[in-house]
Inverse folding.
């Protein structure tokens, strides 16, 4: 694909991070993120508080992104925005701002699917190799777990998905059971490095095809701790690192077993990961190990592109811009 220096302003507000980025073609000029700490005391994202924080953050974040990119707003060729899926109140803030900003400048709008954006973040120009089509991508986050086959930027087939909870949700639930705080994923990752991943075994379900189920793993972990705590009231505190390492290995092994099978079945030699849980160090190292075993190429995103950010929205919007795929101003956000 060829273009003549296209400048995209991108806006992401699907959950609790307000983010704006500026891309010139596939090169990132700025990526500003305002995170919301208010949710930590509640152990999860409170939608009403999230939307209020987005309203406070959106203008300063967009202003900072434009200034850091070293451009004027008149140089922007199009405005990309996350249309969904996500929290409705949060999305409304970003969608409404994008529509107003684009209208004021007389620039086209580009709507972006949040999940596609995570996957396409691999194509932001960082000077290193990018995936070649076709490739398999494991999209794994707090709200989504999918095995995707990409034949093109927007020719994406979902081979498998979770039939109940997402992998990130299972990790956060395990952290909550052990009272590790929110978000629990990074804490489990850190503590697991000090523990034995084979200390305890937890049941994984037998699900047909490439689909997943994580509710059974959560239940297995809960019942295991309930029984141990009856015998040893301080069991969690005394075995925290081993528990973290063991539940992490259970979930990651379950994830990658199906990814490996999907890549073999579809004769694909390149495998990527994307989404918030792709920041997990054990998942990253295990994917690399499996790819090395098969002589496949692994694509692991930089940490800054794992969690929600506008840079990924910008690269998806850029490829849509090249196709002339613009959005009508009447389009509403969608939650699923």
């Amino acid at each position: 694909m060829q273009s003549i220096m296209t400048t995209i302003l991108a806006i992401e507000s699907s959950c609790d991070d307000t983010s704006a980025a500026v891309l010139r073609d596939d090169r990132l000029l700025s990526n500003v993120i305002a995170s919301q700490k208010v949710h930590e005391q509640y152990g999860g994202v409170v939608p009403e508080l999230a939307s209020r924080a987005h309203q406070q953050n959106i203008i300063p974040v967009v202003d900072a992104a434009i200034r850091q990119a070293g451009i004027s707003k008149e140089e922007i060729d199009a405005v990309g925005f996350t249309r969904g899926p996500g929290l409705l109140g949060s999305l409304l803030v970003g969608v409404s701002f994008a529509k107003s900003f684009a209208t004021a400048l007389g620039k086209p709008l580009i709507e972006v699917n949040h999940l596609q954006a995570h996957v396409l973040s691999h194509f932001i120009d960082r000077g290193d190799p990018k995936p070649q089509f076709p490739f398999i991508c494991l999209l794994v986050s707090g709200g989504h777990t999918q095995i995707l086959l990409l034949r093109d930027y927007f020719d994406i087939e979902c081979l498998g998905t979770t039939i109940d909870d997402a992998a990130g949700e299972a990790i956060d639930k395990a952290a909550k059971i052990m009272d590790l705080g929110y978000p629990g994923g990074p804490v489990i990752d850190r503590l697991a490095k000090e523990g034995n991943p084979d200390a305890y075994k937890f049941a994984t379900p037998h699900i047909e095809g490439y689909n997943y189920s994580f509710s059974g793993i959560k239940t297995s972990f809960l019942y295991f701790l309930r029984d141990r705590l009856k015998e040893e009231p301080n069991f969690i505190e005394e075995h925290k690192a081993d528990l973290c390492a063991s539940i992490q290995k259970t979930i990651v092994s379950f994830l990658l077993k199906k990814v490996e099978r999907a890549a073999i079945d579809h004769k694909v030699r390149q495998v990527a990961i994307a989404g918030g849980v792709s920041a997990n160090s054990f998942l990253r190292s295990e994917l690399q190990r499996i790819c090395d075993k098969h002589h496949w190429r692994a694509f692991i995103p930089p940490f800054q592109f794992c969690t929600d950010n506008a840079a990924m929205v910008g690269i998806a919007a850029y490829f849509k811009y090249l196709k002339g795929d613009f959005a009508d101003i009447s389009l509403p956000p969608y939650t699923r």
About this structure: The longest strand covers residues 27-35. The chain has a mean pLDDT of 94. The chain has two domains: 7-121+307-323, 131-301.
